[in-house]
Write a structure and sequence with these properties.
The complex is a heterodimer of chains A (about 110) and B (about 110). Chain A has about 110 residues and is mainly beta. Chain A contains no helices and 11 strands. Chain A is globular, with a radius of gyration of 13 Å. The chains are: A mainly beta (about 110), B mainly beta (about 110). Chains A and B meet through strand 5, strand 9 and strand 10 of A and strand 5, strand 6 and strand 11 of B.
Chain lengths: ~110, ~110
């Protein structure tokens, strides 16, 4: 079946530094990928839609300069949290939609900013 | 705008008992509906999905869900719950393909032995 690989699974960084999270579709091409954020005991909130070869579409209230998304190939999208602060600590999950209408999710990245 | 409501934040059932998790959606067209399960600190696993056709959908791990257009509902059921089913369950709605999914707030399932 369609697999989305997300790395790293956990990362701890110092306040003010940047962190990059990768999301790869392993056995299918993904022209569109989605990035979600999940706070503890809460639901998944869509942050942005990543489109291969073009700019990402951000949801209202999401700072595009803080959460940089790059989708340079049909199998790779990256989310960079720039100048991270403790309030950016969260669980980030990517998703892609292989043919057939469904959605496949990565295993998530637990970001802790200290 | 699309939205999903999961009225039950927490549900506790005894092992072996039946389970029903409620999901109501709001969507302008024929929805693509999904149920996902998430264990702590993990990603999401698809339990089942509905796009069209038979309104009773069978999924993995013995789960099923019924799409009721008149009630805008897509409730998840399992006849006999196992302790390993304890997790967070999310209902989601979307248009499929390259369109975004909207998630409900989730239902935390606890299974008593």
């Amino acid at each position: 079946g369609a697999v989305v690989s997300q790395h790293p699974s956990r990362v701890i960084c110092k306040s003010g530094t940047s962190v990059k999270i990768e999301c790869r579709s392993l056995d299918f091409q993904a022209t569109t990928m989605f990035w979600y954020r999940q706070f503890p005991k809460q639901s998944l909130m869509l942050m942005a839609t990543s489109n291969e070869g073009s700019k990402a579409t951000y949801e209202q209230g999401v700072e595009k300069d803080k959460f940089l998304i790059n989708h340079a190939s049909l199998t790779l999208s990256t989310l960079t949290v720039t100048s991270a602060h403790p309030e950016d600590s969260s669980f980030y999950i990517c998703s892609a939609s292989p043919q057939g209408g469904g959605y496949t999710f990565g295993s998530g990245t637990r970001l802790t900013v200290v | 705008a699309q939205s999903v409501t999961q009225p039950d934040i927490h549900i506790t059932v005894s092992e072996g008992a039946s389970l029903e998790l409620r999901c109501n959606y709001s969507y302008g067209a024929t929805p693509y509906l999904f149920w996902y399960v998430q264990s702590p600190g993990q990603g999401l696993q698809l339990l089942l999905k509905y796009f069209s056709g038979d309104t009773l959908v069978q999924g993995i791990k013995g789960f099923e869900a019924e799409f009721k257009r008149s009630q805008s509902s897509f409730n998840l059921r399992k006849p006999s719950v196992h302790w390993s089913d304890a997790a967070e369950y999310f209902c989601a709605v979307g248009a499929g393909g390259g369109n975004k999914l909207t998630f409900g707030t989730g239902t935390q399932l606890k299974v008593e032995l």
